[in-house]
Amino acid sequence: MRLRDVAAAIAALATLGFVNASGADAIREFLDRHWRRPLAPQGPPPARFSPLEASLQPEACGTCHPAQFADWKTSLHSKSMGPGVTGQLVEMLQSDPGSALACFACHAPLAEQAPRVADGARSNPLYNDTLVAKGLVCAGCHVRGHQRFGPPRRDGSLTPAAPSETLPHNGVTRAPAFLRSEFCQSCHQFTPDGFALNGKLLENTYNEWKASRFAREGVQCQDCHMPDRRHLWRGIHDPEMVRLGLTIDAGAGASRYRPGEIVSVTLTVENTRVGHAFPTYVTPRVVLSAELVDQTGQVVDGSREEKVISREVTLDLEREIADTRLLPGKKALLHYRRRVDRSGLRARLSVVVYPDEFYTRFFESLLEQGGGRGEAQIREALAATRRSLFTVFEREIPLT
């Protein structure tokens, strides 16, 4: 959504009383109902519903919402029950069903997606194995009791365009909460008593945003992760999204150096447009590096230096090792100093993103111990994590 569209929507909602104190209360009441865990089963559909209207499959939604469906298919929401998750759940559903079902709460939240009932003791008679594989489906956010929910129209209006009984699936209930960061909070923020390391919640994205200038300026999660209301949810895995969020500068202290002199080169990464910590979670690792390369492109032995941006934790999640993430407005600086011993050298500066670095190490460790019945899926997930790295910045500076 463009900024002028956001402003228009806010203005329209203000006229309806949704951005004052009572409006905030109404939004919170709606969200408390909408995200009450575990989600209730949909129950029997209305008698007038066709099989297409009664379906919870994303393909059914895509029949009338092809653009949203096409975007969703490219998103990580559609892959939230990928092989890395399902490979672990194969054994976990038997050994620790309570913890396994807790994973479903965000990765596949519908009651019809859980293989067991809430207490984990019995099989779920409503379970749909074709639905669970599709992860966070459209209905996970938009359907409750076969009633459809969605955002206000682009002009901010909430009233239906026609009598609901004349519209497909009885129309949609429009709620301002769909345009608020609080809508995302349910899965992207642990509760205050949730799992924490070193006094910090493991999942703290909403609170990071809440403390930033973006919250004060009214920039919502949806404005960046759902531009123009597109169902994309791009993040740390998307090179262009990362580039848009950072300002990266590189340069040398002098234009030329003679052999024997000390080179001084800097590489700076600043979090200028990410509305939360960069990165926000424990799985990514971002590496700033500087090294010398010769005229043939070969790296000079021993010349590489690195600076890491990440929240590094142990594989068993027992201890935080380091936290060098960048909150909004903060920067990381790699100051590289090295004596040059020959002519023709260049300084190569780069920023490389490893979106799944923790998972790579975790899956490797899991397979060393034996992956159990989910081994094939975990191997598939491991291969994907090794492919996910990308270079977000690279520059070579002639030195001599």
Describe the structure.
The structure is a single chain. By secondary structure, the chain is α+β, with helices and mostly antiparallel strands. It has two domains: 186 residues, no CATH class; 160 residues, Immunoglobulin-like (Sandwich). The chain is built from 16 helices and 13 strands. Helix 6 packs antiparallel against helix 7. The N terminus is likely disordered. It comes from Candidatus Segetimicrobium genomatis. This is Cytochrome c-552/4 domain-containing protein. Keywords: Signal. Pfam families: Cytochrome_C554 (PF13435).
In DSSP terms (H or I, runs of 4 or more residues), the helix count works out at 16
Task: Give the integer mean of the pLDDT values.
Answer: 93
- The gross shape turns out to be globular
Radius of gyration: 25 Å
* Quaternary class: single chain
Mind describing the biggest β-sheet? 5 strands, antiparallel
Q: Could you name the ranges where pLDDT drops below 50 across 5 or more consecutive residues?
A: 1-19
Helix content: 25-40%
Strand content: 15-25%
- By helix and strand content, what is the structural category? alpha+beta
Helix and strand element order: HHHHHHHHHEEEHEEHHHHEEEEEEEHHE
